[in-house]
Design goal:
The protein has about 300 residues and is an alpha/beta fold. The protein is built from 13 helices and nine strands. It folds into three domains: about 160 residues, 3-Layer(aba) Sandwich (Rossmann fold), CATH 3.40.50; about 80 residues, Helicase, Ruva Protein, domain 3 (Orthogonal Bundle); about 50 residues, Homeodomain-like (Arc Repressor Mutant, subunit A, Orthogonal Bundle), CATH 1.10.10. The strands form three sheets. It has a five-stranded parallel beta sheet with strand order 2-5-8-1-9. Strands 3-4 form a two-stranded antiparallel ribbon. The chain is elongated and about 90 Å long.
Length: about 300
């Protein structure tokens, strides 16, 4: 099983709470943008639970067809009442079900899913008999389900039954201190028998300031592509995809000197103050934003009489 990677406070907190949440059978609703690792978290919760040796059944609710969704989830019986197909919920008996993109569940089956969560009851198509299954439910959504409830697109009772324990997987842009760790990890993973792709400071700084809209999944795909195209090479800005380059870096020079000239000391002071503001006073983070060491930052702060 792939692990959740990160040393940021957000990820550290999630990793610390996984054993506590996993020990319970309470339903968990995982929020997060695409690529943030919602399914990884579901796997981690199952692996730490008492059900770890039982099946984890993942159901992508967005991929369920509207015609066969009930039979797919709950199963189907023949005309004599014999089970013809065990639905995926019954197949997960004693294990865990992960309802990915749960917001895509059709309203027509949400009441039956609610009943399953409350009593473990499955009514198979073609049968009036109720079948029971002992299953723990984990769910995930990339949208705000409370808003979907307000808009009448999701049942309020099902929402509250799912959200016993809500967890939010943060987007990568909110934990930039993890980007270098992810680049190293996936770089080593995809290097194979080749030397690992290297990132000079200016390139690494560029990647740390990129928004990564696809989050961790985008980092993984990027590292795989770089390992294939530039094995063992030091990556420079010109090697990066254009969309990853800041507007200034995409031009010939990172900074264009105006004809009137500049006061270099004033520019340096201004950048240091901006970095400290962006990092909320965290000197290590501000140093990373500037592409310098923490000691160099402290030296330059003293140079400009900034509060150490």
């Amino acid at each position: 099983m792939k692990q959740i990677l990160g040393q940021s406070p957000q990820i550290t907190h999630i990793l610390r709470t996984i054993p506590m949440i996993a020990a319970s059978d309470a339903s968990v609703l995982i929020y997060g943008e695409t690529g943030t690792g919602k399914e990884l978290l579901a796997h981690a919760l199952h692996a730490e639970s008492r059900r770890h040796d039982k099946p984890l059944v993942t159901i992508n609710c967005a991929a369920l067809t509207s015609e066969g969704v009930e039979a797919d989830l709950f199963g189907r019986c023949d005309s004599e009442g014999n089970i013809e197909y065990r639905g995926r919920l019954l197949a997960a008996d004693s294990g865990t079900v992960f309802l990915d993109e749960v917001d895509s569940l059709p309203l027509s089956v949400q009441a039956k899913v609610l009943r399953f969560l409350e009593a473990g009851e499955c009514q198979l198509q073609g049968s009036h008999k109720l079948h029971l299954a002992d299953v723990r439910i984990l769910a995930a959504s990339s949208i705000n389900l409370q808003t979907a409830v307000t808009e009448g697109k999701f049942r309020a009772d099902l929402f509250y039954r799912l959200q016993v324990v809500p967890i939010t997987m943060p987007p990568l842009r909110e934990r930039r201190e993890d980007i270098s760790l992810l680049l190293r990890h996936f770089g080593n993973e995809f290097a194979g028998n080749n030397a690992v792709v290297r990132y000079p400071k200016v390139t690494e700084h560029c990647l740390q300031t990129y928004a990564w809209p696809g989050n961790v999944r985008e980092v993984l795909n990027f590292c795989q592509r770089m390992a294939l195209l530039y094995p063992g090479k030091a990556l420079h800005l010109e090697d990066l995809p254009p969309e990853m380059l800041p507007e200034a870096a995409a031009s010939e020079h990172v900074f264009t000197l105006p004809p009137t000239g500049i006061k270099l000391a004033q520019v340096e002071l201004d950048l240091i103050e901006q970095a400290l503001e962006m990092a909320a006073g965290n000197r290590s983070r501000a140093a990373r934003l500037l592409g310098i060491s923490r000691d160099t930052l402290l030296y330059r702060m003293q140079k400009y009489s900034l509060e150490p």
